[in-house]
Specification:
Helices cover 25% and strands 27% of the residues. With 195 residues, it is α+β, with helices and mostly antiparallel strands. This is Protein kinase domain-containing protein.
Length: 195
């Protein structure tokens, strides 16, 4: 089996993805993007017609114990978070072929794509996005979570152009204050003074 075939999720031919534990079904829509391990598709709940982003990870990429543990950690961390500037986690489930993570959909894509399209961001826009990012990071760090992969491609924009931090695949949870990974310095930054 080629590496490329191994990376592609095997999806139901009828386009319906089923969570057998809850009985919910999702209709797979358009392809939204891909990351190191996952493909992301638009998913629409058949019962409610609500649209989500579905992060789909083939189990063929989770064969080693550390890969499975990392996936469990990503889900546990993301599931525990609730902040207006952190991408909303709705649910997760799996079938014989894939692990599915159902998330808030952000149709305005990423700050990376915005920058590529426009080539520039105005100073007021930069302040607007930085304020939201700092607000989210303050929440994450107070929740003892360090993201460890902040980049324009992991900063999503919803329909209202509100920033959402996404992709907790490299995130870690700090167990205690003395943990070396907790060395996060805010440089005295007060996010209320940015705007």
């Amino acid at each position: 089996m080629s590496s490329k075939a191994k990376d592609e999720p095997k999806l139901p031919a009828d386009g319906i993805i089923r969570d057998v534990a809850t009985g919910k079904s999702y209709r797979r829509g358009k392809f939204l993007g891909k990351g190191g391990f996952a493909r992301v598709y638009e998913l629409t709940c058949v019962a409610s017609n609500q649209t989500f982003a579905g992060k789909i990870v083939p189990k063929t990429l989770l064969q080693k114990l550390h890969q499975r543990e990392k996936m469990k950690q990503e889900i546990a961390i993301h599931k525990s978070l609730n902040h207006k500037h952190v991408l909303k986690f709705h649910c997760n489930f799996e079938d014989a072929e894939n692990v599915y993570i159902v998330l808030e959909v952000c149709r305005k894509r990423t700050l990376m794509e915005l920058h590529r399209r426009r080539k520039t961001v105005t100073e007021p826009e930069a302040r607007y996005f930085m304020h939201q990012m700092c607000d989210a990071l303050k929440y994450l760090h107070e929740s003892r979570v360090v993201h460890r992969d902040l980049k324009l491609g992991n900063l999503l924009l919803n329909d209202d152009l509100e920033l959402k931090i996404a992709d907790f695949g490299l995130a870690t949870l700090i167990e205690k204050n003395g943990d070396r990974k907790m060395q996060v310095d805010y440089f005295g930054l007060n996010t209320s003074t940015i705007l």
